[in-house]
Amino acid sequence: MSNIKPKYYVVWKGKEPGIYTNWNDCKQQVEGFTGAAYKSFTSKEEAEQAYKEHFARHIYKKEKTESTKDLSAVGTPIHESIIVDAAWNSVQKDMEYQGILYKTNTRIFHMGPLANGTNNIGEFLAIVHALGYCKKHNMHSMPIYSDSRNAIGWVKAKKCKTNLEQSAKTQHIFNLIHRAENWLQENNYRNKILKWETEAWGENPADFGRK
């Protein structure tokens, strides 16, 4: 009798998402697939439950150590929410940002690549973009998550406090910044802007996966 315990492989993001009972089948779904999300489980029941949930609940989480503070007090993220993130390419020197609906992992907007931007500017623009999206679609109670404390503070202050130098090369970025600042000045919103707690919840689901 074999002592090898069965494994169940959940593929949230792959060529054909689903639950697989051997590694080779799982590998075929994720190999070469950009942004693949998958994990193995030791029971069918655990795998089926995990598949119903967002992959960020199960992967990319840091292991706790004795020196790590108890993070249970932060609770869990709100499923009915929008999550935004930005990425800066160190090779191309450009920035882009996007927003997703957390519950369905559906991308609802994307901007870029934009030359000569910064990550914090991208986060700031992404939050304002999400606020505008919510206003347009009457989603006034939809919370918005970002993992950038700087950007959240800038939005609440209605001012992008970037150190980026304004020049001919960066003018297109500052045009977007000024438009976002004007939107904040001219519009009211009820949406809560919340911090995505990466240490407790794992990687931001809107992350571009370039770390």
Detailed description of the structure:
With 211 residues, the chain is of the alpha/beta class. The protein has two domains: 8-60, 3-Layer(aba) Sandwich (Ribonuclease HI, Chain A); 82-201, 2-Layer Sandwich (Nucleotidyltransferase, domain 5). Helix content is 30%, strand content 22%. It has helices at 23-30, 44-52, 119-136, 149-157, 171-186, 198-201, and strands spanning 8-13, 18-20, 37-41, 82-89, 94-101, 106-115, 144-146, 193-195. The strands form two sheets. It has a five-stranded mixed sheet with strand order 6-5-4-7-8, with helices on one face. The protein has a three-stranded antiparallel sheet with strand order 2-1-3, with helices on both faces. Helix 3 crosses helix 4 (149-157) and helix 3 (119-136) packs across helix 5. The longest helix has 18 residues, at 119-136. Mean pLDDT is 85; it is low at 61-69. GO terms for molecular function: metal ion binding; nucleic acid binding; RNA-DNA hybrid ribonuclease activity. Endonuclease that specifically degrades the RNA of RNA-DNA hybrids.
Features:
alpha/beta; 3-stranded antiparallel sheet; 211 residues; single chain; 30% helix; 6 helices; Nucleotidyltransferase, domain 5; Ribonuclease HI, Chain A
